[in-house]
Write a structure and sequence with these properties.
The protein is of the alpha/beta class and 950 residues long. It is built from 42 helices and 24 strands. 57% of the residues are buried. The C terminus is likely disordered.
């Protein structure tokens, strides 16, 4: 039987025996071809098991057909230990149940797909938590943590995952179910292995806390309790498939506080960590000043609280029985640390912002200071903590000698360092290998470990001989053979490893230069470089709405990797690679992958790596359809401003026609839209028609330009009228452009970038006299304002007016928070005391301008505010298009709809975005208002005034 026939037979067997999904499509294989590492291994089949029986069936099919079997959780492995060439088992989709939680015994039994943050929430109800907490805790799974022996910042206090595992129930590589705890007899052959290697295990393994490389055979020693389950932790899926795990829980501290210590550099901070340990902290994290600078550039200076003087910091968390005791302990650490400078930060918004820098480090470090892509590969080396400062000094010399650079951070209390380096993977893989060999020799020379918590995987397994003797490597092979004698489970990792420079993903990716669409300035015009910003950290799979995040609405609605930012980036990367997805930008795989992208832009701000899938989707659509016939929706919605100008002249006729159900539904179907949708009503009088007919202004004032977008003009002129009244009441003279001008938003979202450029050139011509006069430009529709701030410079980068417009454009809240009255005093908003306001920020505002000024303005006005985090689900044209209605409503059910039901009819819905107001109206029957309307309605009456144009 040929290999192809054998694979076909295996796939048929999987479909017959597995209740979960079995997917061998090209698109699905592309999504799972890599994890968060540098490596690319395309699987034959991806399986989503629903039961233990499914797992057993997959393993049996793999064994029968000689196909490797690789376990996968959230796919956040940076070492390449969650990818494989045969059958990949994604445990995160269905096997995600907390089987039992016993607060008295402080234990939990979990399936391998349980996300850590889910367990933390369940345990928190009993005042408990799981100790280890890696930065990916809002999406990483317990199975993956067990596979890698994950740690996180608080391993200083509560140990590694291995220290918190009580028992495992697994299927070994022969298909036998085993329950592993503290009995060597649970796996025949282990007793003999330990007896034959006692001296070796005692001298080479378990030498310090973060010795993560190789297998954890030290747990098998009699003095360690013969703990077989803990020896399996960190085995990277090479010895068994986890069915469930019994883990220990620890009490949640009553109170915590943060001591921030500043040092001249990172090695000095590492030296200081040893002194800090005497204070029994929960965590000691090292942060490079250059990493903090990246945060400031990416998210603005306001994203970083005040830090003590220094070029490197230690974040030291301590606990106490009361907040006062915790603060006192933090102050004591500051006094005794001998740091250059220090600061105590109480637990709250500031400390959360500082921890967010640390949590996002893996993505933020994906670009060096000068914008070079930086990669994992030497990601998490560890040395005994007393050697850390010396190691960092030697490491700096090593990186200088190899001509590479990167941003440092890590668990300095444990001697573990994270760094991403601008390794020459794409153009000089041989230099990549040479650096890794020298780096491994360096860490071994300091008595350290190639891996401190992420596992060896494909990134470091080949380098293990530089750290261990041949006898130790033989013991590792013997341990693997006890559980997986046929090498079915995750081959190429730890034992008989693949070369560290085999299957490098970026090395297989050709450049995709500028072709007339977006300039992609930050990526040098190269779509390939832009797509490879996604290194797979998977934050797009996490629900970050509790912290104000908006990414990724489609994944949160469907739970399918296909609909995550990462999944889309993987398919785009494979399209560029061209060996798996072979149809180029017109491939059905890429079309399907991008179809449910809402173009909400949230990933552009929420993804630490700066992936902007909305931009990539526009660019792909541009390349796919340029000079070709387009889908009907591109004409119906992509050119909406043109149709709006026609509808605005005949509003009564258009509105009457759209009110006739059969006629409306037929029209929507013809246009490629969902017939369940309503058609927004055109205003009886456009804003511009009102503007021309209103009374003359009362007198001169400081001039501002109010940007009248298509939605405000044709559908919501009341918003524009309220803004005029409000601004004039403050003492400003409002002007608008002489003629209608469009930002090209709908052309951009449908990839009609040549048309968008034409629209924006006309807009620049209309704005030029106002730029020359130095007038601020105030936008009302967030999506259109975001175009002027971010898309305009991408589409017309060489027109000097683009940068001027971007710098001059403000949201209404941004303008009002710095506005002054006629006497130069800060403007005070009208009072909103007692007014309950439910706010739906627009996704594009969240991503580009931010909502902080609006938040501050509402607070100053005294409103009671509940802020919704996440997309409304309509997202411009997305929710109107046929095939998107169900996902659009599912997205709304994750945010705006349940909040509106909870708040009831008395709360005011504040939604500046026209699409947000439309979604609330169509799905909840709730009318929303714009900030201008909310403030103008609360303001004292003003005298009418009139219409200068310029």
């Amino acid at each position: 039987m040929s290999g192809t026939d054998d694979l076909t037979s295996a796939i048929a067997a999987l479909h017959a025996r597995v209740a979960g999904e079995v997917d061998d499509s090209t698109r699905r294989r592309a999504e799972y071809s890599t994890d968060a590492s540098n490596y690319r291994v395309v699987p034959d089949v991806v399986v989503f098991p629903r039961s233990d029986e499914d797992v057993a069936a997959v393993l049996e099919v793999g064994r029968t057909h000689n196909l490797p079997v690789t376990a996968r959780g959230a796919g956040t492995s940076v070492a390449g230990n969650a990818i494989g060439s045969g059958l990949v088992l994604d445990f995160s989709r269905h096997l995600d149940r907390i089987v039992a939680l016993d607060p008295d015994l402080r234990t939990a039994v979990v399936q391998p797909g349980v996300v850590l943050s889910t367990l933390q929430r369940a345990a928190a109800a009993h005042g408990l938590r799981f100790g280890p907490d890696p930065s990916t805790q809002d999406r990483c799974t317990l199975g993956g943590m067990i596979g890698n022996n994950a740690c996180g910042p608080r391993a200083v206090a509560w140990g590694r995952t291995a220290d918190n595992v009580h028992a495992l129930r697994i299927l070994d590589g022969t298909g036998v179910e085993r329950r592993l705890a503290d009995d060597l007899s649970a796996a025949p052959g282990l007793d003999r292995l330990v007896t034959d290697n006692l001296a070796l295990i005692r001298t080479e393994l378990g030498r310090f806390e973060r010795q993560g490389s190789g297998y954890g055979l030290e747990h098998l020693l009699p003095e360690r309790g013969h703990h077989v389950a803990r020896a399996l932790v960190g085995s990277e899926g090479t010895c068994g498939l986890i069915l469930d795990a019994t883990v220990g829980l620890v009490p949640v501290p009553a109170a915590t506080a943060l001591a921030v210590l500043g040092y001249p550099d990172m090695p000095a901070a590492a030296d200081g960590a040893a002194m800090v340990l005497t204070g029994r902290p929960l965590a000691i994290e090292g942060i490079d000043a250059r990493l903090v600078d990246v945060v400031r550039r990416h998210k603005g200076a306001g994203a970083v609280p005040d830090l003590p003087r220094g070029a490197g910091w230690l974040f030291v968390e301590v606990d106490g029985s009361t907040p006062a005791e915790a603060l006192a302990r933090a102050a004591e650490i500051c006094r005794d640390a001998g740091a250059l400078d220090s600061r105590v930060v109480p637990t709250g918004p500031e400390s959360a912002a500082l921890w967010r820098i640390r949590a996002d480090g893996v993505g933020l470090a994906g670009r060096t200071v000068d914008g070079q892509p930086a990669w994992p590969g030497w990601e998490d080396a560890a040395v005994p903590r007393q050697r850390l400062g010396a190691y960092l000094r030697d490491f700096a010399e090593l990186t200088g000698r190899h001509g590479v650079d990167g941003l440092l951070y890590g668990h300095f209390g444990d001697g573990c360092v994270h760094v991403r380096l601008d390794l020459p993977i794409a153009d000089a893989p041989q230099r990549f290998r040479a650096f890794l060999v020298d780096a491994a020799a360096l860490v071994a020379g300091h008595g350290g470990s190639l891996s401190g918590e992420h596992g060896d995987g494909r990134a470091r397994s080949e380098l293990l001989p530089l750290m261990y003797t041949e006898s130790a490597l033989a013991a590792f092979a013997g341990f693997k053979a006890v559980f997986d004698p046929s090498n079915v489970l995750n081959p190429g990792v730890l034992v008989d490893p693949a070369p560290v420079d085999a299957g490098l993903r970026v090395a297989q990716a050709p450049p995709v230069p500028f072709a007339g669409g977006l300039s992609l300035t930050a990526d040098r015009g190269d779509l390939s470089m832009a797509a490879h910003r996604c290194v797979g950290i998977g934050k797009c799979r996490a629900d970050t709405s509790g912290a104000g995040g908006f990414m990724c609405p489609s994944y949160l609605a469907t739970g399918d990797e296909k609909d995550s930012t990462r999944g889309r980036a993987r398919v785009l990367q494979e399209t560029i690679n061209g060996s798996l997805v072979t149809g180029g930008f017109g491939s059905p795989e890429l079309e399907e992958s991008l179809d449910l992208c809402l173009s909400c832009k949230a990933c552009g701000s929420d993804c630490p790596a700066g992936v902007d899938m909305a931009a990539y989707k526009s660019e792909v659509l541009y390349r796919r359809y340029r000079r070709r016939p387009r889908p009907r929706t591109h004409y119906a919605l992509g050119m909406l401003p043109r149709w709006s100008r026609i509808g605005g002249r005949l509003p009564s006729i258009v509105n009457a026609a759209s009110a006739i159900g059969p006629l409306r539904r037929t029209g929507l179907r013809v246009a490629g839209l969902d017939p369940r949708r309503g058609v927004p009503r055109f205003a009886d009088q456009t804003f511009r028609r009102w503007w021309r007919r209103r009374p003359a202004p009362a007198g001169p004032g400081r001039e501002v330009l109010l940007w009248i977008d298509t939605f405000t003009d044709s559908f919501s002129p009341a918003v524009g009228r309220a803004a005029v009244a409000l601004l004039e009441d403050v003492g400003y003279q409002v002007l608008i452009t002489r003629r209608s001008a469009c930002c090209g938003l709908t052309w951009i979202s449908t990839g009609q970038l040549d048309g968008a450029r034409r629209q924006l050139l006309g807009t620049l011509d209309q704005l030029q006299p106002h730029l020359e006069a130095g007038r601020p430009i105030i936008g009302l529709e967030p999506s259109c304002t975001a175009v002027l701030r971010s898309d305009l410079p991408e589409l017309l980068p060489d027109d000097p007016r683009s940068a001027l417009v971007a710098a001059s454009t403000r949201t209404l809240a941004e303008f009002l928070t710095t506005a002054t009255d006629a006497d130069g005093r800060p403007w005070s908003p009208p009072r909103l005391d007692g007014v309950r306001v439910v706010v739906q920020p627009h996704c594009h505002q969240h991503a580009v301008m931010g909502f902080a000024p609006d938040r501050a303005l509402l607070a100053r006005a005294g409103a009671e505010v509940r802020e919704i985090a996440g997309c409304c689900g309509l997202a411009g044209n997305f929710g109107m298009e046929r095939g998107h209605y169900d996902v659009s409503t599912a997205v709304a059910e994750n945010g705006i709809l349940p909040v509106l039901r909870e708040e009831g009819p008395d709360a005011v819905l504040l939604a500046d975005g026209f699409s947000c107001r439309t979604q609330a109206d169509q799905l909840a029957g709730r009318e929303g208002v714009h900030l201008a309307q909310l403030l103008e309605a609360a303001a004292p009456p003003v005298s009418p005034s009139g219409p200068p144009e310029g």
